[in-house]
Specification:
Shape: globular
Radius of gyration: 25 Å
Number of helices: 22
Helix content: 40-55%
């Protein structure tokens, strides 16, 4: 009895001791000053400083402009990821060679995560930890839980389910392996040999979107679905046309700023999410004329990354945040991120994006697809919601260079259908840019140089471009002015329900949690622009002259047929869109630890688009680098 009393007393004393220690440590942790992130906001010049009142307003809607964080539950820590956007600067591409990860204890982040995890706003998804910047941060054994903003699922699922009801899903899934990774030529051959029909092809894509985009790992790349695409595809099957165009019957997805007469066009906004334009964009007319089928629209960085510095790449108020299919921890980049995802995941035969500066090339590199930005002026941007009509350029995102070539021919009304050549790099001088990851003698870079040489090219290393800091600042100021003027004109001509940028800014304030979750400082900066049309034209002409002179002088002085840049960074990817030169990004390999796709971007002289595509094709055929993502929970 005495022994039992002693044991009970000892147990009680131990319990009180442990409890007291826990409460003391907890109070110490709570009272400790909160660590701030070492990451800064996007390194772009701003047209004017913000006042303190505006900064306070920004905080209220969940965006710290000085210290943007992509918050992800990681045990009791916070995952902070540096970001790149579709509107890039020379400084930002240099500073963001890798995606930097940092772990910090942060109870307020956990509270914020809980607050943002309300029904109908977010869907939690468990993801597997991995390395984004190998060597800087070891992975933890504890899997993070991400809050993914995922809006209006039924908007995509209802037309998919309605059309899949008429199809044999088991039969589609049995044939699905024929479609994964297939290029246009293979798809057309499968149909010609009766192994597949256009109806089945469209059905396979719809079923894959249902399984992997709206369910499963929920990539969230698709915003709209054509409710009659199965009927349209069946009609093509019944016509049994001969001498069909290359794109005949091929399902195409369009970035959600490309106008269509049957599907809403929103530029990712809540304000325009139900707006159906009165006519198709010029490039949509061309696609339809050549027999292509419009399958749907793709998610994008809202307003082509012109909403706010704090908006994550691939996020829109209309649909939420899209993800990189190669890893949930990798940035999908913007603003044509949804189009890149659709291409790399076989959600369509072809995807179309738009680029003002980096918006095709960057997501193509981040998601291991071919991205082609044609020379300025060769492809019409009529009917596309503008960021800057003088720079905006539509272009394809595809799984192969050949598919990009076939699509570009249609977009440019190019009658020539000459075959691309594996010998196109023979006796060509290719300059390897040395201001980014090209400096790092990685296994991937070694293979790039070897493949270029094997293809017959002479690789000239150490190519550099001058830093043009004033171009950065003037370019952002110009985009703000262009956006305000061009958008207002576009909305009024096309009889939008919102006729001005000012009315859209006011609309966003009516429900800031959804309409402007990360702020709208860039919209406000554009609205406040006082630059006249003549002043803007003068600035644009000067910027175009400077950038063209810089690229031309390097190409001519070194007698180069093209400049190539490895990885995400590189001044050439900032200068080329301003100068109007064509750009072609091609998969170059994958990081062995993080599975992060690596890319190679070719830039050549203006209006040498076909020659550039030929050189890219020759590299692709030698290197054969691309592999499809594994679409399972990560």
């Amino acid at each position: 009895m005495k022994r039992r009393i002693i044991i009970i007393c000892a147990t009680v004393i131990t319990t009180f001791s442990v409890t007291g220690t826990y409460l003391y440590l907890t109070s110490q942790q709570t009272s400790a000053p909160e660590r701030t992130s070492s990451m800064t906001k996007k390194d772009l010049p701003t047209s004017k400083p913000k006042d303190s009142n505006q900064h306070d307003k920004d905080k209220k809607i969940g965006s710290n402009k000085e210290n943007f964080k992509l918050e992800t539950g990681f045990g009791n820590k916070t995952l902070e990821v540096g970001r790149l956007t579709g509107r890039v600067s020379q400084e930002s591409v240099h500073k963001n060679k890798n995606f930097e990860i940092k772990l910090t204890n942060d109870k307020t982040a956990a509270a914020k995560k809980k607050e943002n995890s309300k029904p109908n706003n977010t869907l939690p998804s468990k993801v597997k930890p991995g390395k984004v910047n190998p060597g800087k941060q070891k992975p933890t054994e504890e899997a993070p839980i991400q809050d993914i903003n995922f809006y209006d699922k039924e908007r995509v699922m209802d037309p998919i389910d309605a059309q899949l009801e008429s199809l044999d899903i088991a039969a589609l899934e049995e044939k699905e392996h024929l479609v994964i990774g297939a290029d246009i030529a293979k798809l057309q051959n499968l149909i010609t040999t009766n192994q597949l029909s256009y109806k089945e092809l469209a059905g396979i894509y719809l079923n894959r979107i249902k399984k992997h985009d709206q369910n499963g790992i929920m990539l969230n790349a698709i915003t709209e679905i054509n409710p009659t695409i199965i009927a349209e595809a069946e009609q093509l099957d019944n016509q049994n046309e001969s001498n069909k165009p290359a794109l005949y019957g091929m399902p195409v997805v369009l970035k959600d700023n490309i106008g269509t007469i049957t599907l809403p066009t929103s530029a990712g906004t809540v304000a325009l999410k139900d707006w159906v334009m009165e006519k198709d964009a010029a490039i949509v007319d061309k696609l339809k004329t050549n027999g292509a089928l419009i399958l749907g629209k793709t998610n994008m960085s809202e307003w082509a990354a012109a909403m706010d510095d704090g908006v994550p790449n691939g996020y829109s108020g209309k649909k939420g945040r899209s993800k990189n299919p190669y890893s949930s921890e990798l940035d999908p980049l913007g603003s044509s991120s949804g189009s890149a995802t659709a291409a790399t995941c076989d959600f369509a035969a072809i995807a179309i994006g738009t680029e003002t500066n980096g918006s095709i090339i960057l997501p193509a590199g981040a998601q291991s697809v071919v991205g082609f930005k044609p020379s300025q002026g060769l492809v019409s941007n009529e009917g596309i919601i503008p960021l800057s009509s003088r720079f905006d350029t539509p272009g394809p995102l595809t799984r192969t260079v050949t598919d990009a070539y076939l699509t570009t021919n249609v977009l440019m009304d190019e009658a020539s259908q000459t075959m691309l050549s594996k010998d196109a790099l023979k006796n060509k001088r290719i300059g390897l840019l040395s201001d980014d990851e090209s400096n790092e003698e990685t296994a991937i870079l070694k293979k790039i140089k070897k493949d270029l040489t094997t293809a017959g090219a002479t690789v000239i290393e150490g190519i550099t471009l001058e830093e043009l800091e004033q171009v950065d600042a003037d370019y952002i100021t110009l985009l703000n002015a262009d956006f305000k003027r061009d958008l207002n004109q576009f909305l009024q001509i096309n009889r939008s329900p919102m006729s001005t940028l000012e009315s859209i800014i006011a609309f966003n304030k009516t429900n800031p949690t959804r309409n402007m979750k990360f702020g709208q400082s860039e919209l406000v900066a554009s609205q406040n622009s006082t630059m006249t049309k003549q002043e803007a034209d003068n600035v644009a002409n000067e910027l175009i002259h400077i950038t063209q002179n810089e690229l031309d002088s390097v190409l001519q002085n070194e007698r180069l047929d093209a400049i190539v840049s490895a990885g995400v960074g590189g001044s050439v990817k900032f200068l080329a869109p301003i100068a109007g030169n064509p750009e072609l990004t091609i998969p170059a390999g994958y990081d062995t630890e993080s599975n992060q796709p690596k890319s190679l971007t070719f830039v050549s002289k203006r209006n040498t688009d076909i020659a550039l595509l030929n050189m890219g094709y020759a590299y692709e055929q030698i290197s054969k680098n691309r592999k499809s993502p594994v679409l399972t929970n990560q």
